[in-house]
Amino acid sequence: MSLAKCKKCGTVFRENDKSCPECGTKLDRKPMGCGTALGIIFVAITLVILDSFVRSTNSPDNFVKPELDIQENINEKGIAQKWMPQIEEICKDWAFYKAKVYKYSMEGEEKKAREASNIFKSITNELSQYPEEDVYEACKKYDTPEYLKKYM
Length: 152
Description:
Strand content: under 5%
Mean pLDDT: 78
Radius of gyration: 38 Å
Largest sheet: 2 strands, antiparallel
Strand order of the largest sheet: 1-2
Order of helices and strands: EEHHHHH
Oligomer: single chain
Low-confidence stretches: 65-70
């Protein structure tokens, strides 16, 4: 059994009493409101969600697993080259537009040469995002007179 103190006269009395025995002031008992109940429910749901998130991110299934096929993407220097197939495709486009710039320039078609040159520059920019030696290795087979003649 707990005790309460009257706000008006300061008398201490039992909390079960409805009013102060000394001055008769009614005890202010506010029932738990809807806002308080919703707040408690919101906090509980938030804690449950956070707990499940923490448990799911710490799951052993979420740890990085070594790739089994990494051996096929290793060059003679031992560097993993997952991006080599992408570089190869970009190099084909690079060689194509290099040949087109040359062809249109030789034919005097300035507008087409300018358009091809702009595309060629954007492809060169894209290739600059990859290691230079890998780009060189991938593009050297496409940057030959025999290959370029196909597009001229």
